[in-house]
Design brief:
Chain lengths: 472, 94
């Protein structure tokens, strides 16, 4: 299938920018990993806080752009018509690209401002992870609204209301609505944090998870030919489980920010059952892949889709559960166990699905499902990414264990304890290993770019689907 | 205290890790008809419950929390059996 709709062309543009931002995320990640080893590196020019902000913000934006790209690819297929507001969609895309460019330039060149409204509006809001200045926040909400409008208007116009589209429409409402919670100022830090987590946790563990469920559903339908009724049944079940556990699982962020004590019980209970849907998803993925004997017309898309289920389980489930109960979180809160969990969970849950979607689209565009999309370069990049991420996670976990046991449980969470433990070999060596595996991970990027540019362009190098079917 | 915290972290890590490994093994064993894989996965499931039971000895947890952990331990043990049976009830994707 060649590109049939204008919105699918736009989807490809979304993915191009997303992959460029992945490169920026990796670059700033390597800089901050090295600054752990050599704090003087770029000191005064590109401080740790700025690079860290760019590392995380680039990740949030590229993942979001990939999701939007996925929506714009599948929406016309699902509704069998062009997206209603295609001009608006293009405007939203360019507005987002220009806004991201300006914000990054301001982050790099200006970095900080005085404590007044000008800084909040034009430099940075200062809230961790959602540092974008207020004007850019409004832009993000506007783009989310454009996507939501386009989905709803296209569905209504096409009169094809499927279960997956209903889930998507409801989810997009929450996607832009929840972001509003992180956009107002309050002088009370507890109130501020309370609503800040609505964006940081609920976006990631509710709206994004549901959005990924929809995109994964479409991917499985088109990649493995799984019937719609099965996909929709699973989507309802898994969305129910994810929202049932994930929404009040928010409570694990309310343990130590000054909220009432009952959040210890609520957060602890729902966090303990949060891995349930993740285990269920892994079982489902293994079952599907096993039934198809890993046969597919698009190998990289299938492997990244499987990695999504496994990575989500390990990163969010195993590493999340380990430090989520209040009794242990009292000691582990804010140690390197948190970034260990964050790195693996984001890689598994969101980076993997974005790459699966991108490879699926490339397969559709370049081989039209007549050849098995495969190459050596995707395997190399896949292995470097997976190996690098597992290494980084392991190193950060060791560092986090040392912090939890020594800095917190033994020396009592003082600044003196913090500084003392930072020079402990379990931390200093772990930071070196994290940097080493960060380089391994980053090496996957040029292979990925090379592969994305080349894969499927020369069908004579690929095996025809008919031949694969004959071999059984 | 540090030792208590260390064992708690380690046991909760392995509890969910074994739960996932058991889920994968049980599913593969079921769809491929490999009783050996299924048996090995059940051992992993047993280890998952064992980790949950060891967590009950932690002084960090009060009785309601111990009940929660034990319940979770058993849910994670039975989940793959229920889930695979549930998936099989759906019409085949092939």
């Amino acid at each position: 299938m060649k590109v049939q709709y204008e919105s699918q062309r736009l989807a490809i543009w979304y993915f191009i920018v997303a992959i460029a931002l992945l490169g920026a995320q990796l670059l700033f990640g390597l800089i901050i990993a090295y600054q752990y080893l050599n704090p003087d590196f770029l000191f005064g020019k590109l401080n740790f806080m700025t690079s860290r902000m760019l590392h995380i913000n680039a990740m949030v934006v590229w993942l979001l752009m990939g999701f939007i790209g996925g929506i714009y690819w599948f929406l016309p297929i699902e509704t069998e018509r062009e997206v209603v507001g295609i001009k608006l969609a293009k405007f939203g895309f360019w507005a987002l690209v220009i806004a991201v460019t300006i914000v990054v330039l301001v982050y790099l060149l200006k970095q900080i401002g005085s404590a007044d409204l000008f800084t909040i509006w034009f430099i940075t809001e200062g809230r961790e992870y959602i540092e974008a200045p207020r004007w850019a926040d409004i832009g993000i909400v506007a783009v989310a609204l454009i996507v939501a409008y386009n989905v709803i208007a296209t569905v209504l116009k096409s009169k094809k209301v499927t279960g997956m589209l209903i889930v998507l429409m409801i989810d997009l409402g929450f996607l832009f609505g929840l972001y509003l919670a992180g956009m107002f100022f309050t002088p009370n830090i507890t109130v501020d944090q309370y609503f800040w987590w609505w964006v940081v946790h609920l976006w990631v563990e509710a709206t994004w998870e549901v959005l990924v469920g929809v995109l994964m559903g479409w991917l499985l339908m088109h990649l493995l030919g799984t019937p719609r009724k099965i996909i929709e049944a699973w989507l309802y079940l898994e969305v129910a489980l994810v929202t049932a556990t994930g929404v009040l699982g928010l409570g694990h962020h309310y343990f130590w920010i000054g909220t009432p004590e009952y959040w210890l019980g609520i957060g602890g209970f729902f966090s303990a059952i949060e891995p349930l849907p993740l285990v269920a998803m892994v079982i489902h993925a293994i079952y599907d892949a096993g039934m198809h004997k890993l046969r597919t017309v698009n190998k990289p898309a299938l492997f990244w889709a499987l990695t999504q289920a496994l990575g989500n389980f390990f990163g969010a489930g195993v590493w999340g559960f380990m430090h989520t109960l209040p009794q242990i979180n009292l000691f582990s809160h804010g140690t390197q166990i948190t970034p260990a969990h964050g790195h693996l969970a984001f890689f598994g849950a969101y980076m993997a699905i974005n790459l699966a979607l991108l490879y699926f689209i490339l397969g559709q565009v370049r081989t039209e499902n007549k050849y098995i999309l495969d190459s050596k370069a995707w395997k190399v990049s896949f292995l470097l990414f997976v190996f690098g991420m597992l290494g980084m996670t392991a190193a950060l976990t060791v560092a986090g264990f040392a912090q939890t046991m020594l800095e917190r449980a033994t020396y009592g969470s003082t600044w003196e304890a913090y500084n003392l433990v930072q020079s402990h070999p379990w931390l200093s060596q772990a930071y070196k290993w994290r940097f080493f595996f960060g380089i391994i991970f980053a090496l996957g990027y040029p292979f990925l770019i090379y592969d994305l540019l080349k894969i499927g362009k020369n069908p004579t190098l690929l095996k025809p689907v008919e031949e694969e079917l004959k071999e059984g | 205290m540090a030792q208590e915290v260390f064992y708690f972290l380690l046991l909760s890590f392995f509890m969910v890790l074994f739960a996932g490994a058991y889920g994968v093994g049980y599913t593969l064993g079921s769809i491929k008809g490999l009783p050996g894989v299924k048996f090995l996965s059940l051992l992993l499931g047993g280890l998952e419950v064992f980790c949950a039971i060891l967590l009950l000895f932690s002084n960090l947890l009060s009785i309601p929390w111990k009940a929660l952990i034990l319940t979770c331990g058993f849910i994670y043990f039975f989940l793959p059996m229920w889930w695979v049976r549930f998936i099989k009830k759906f019409p085949s994707a092939d």
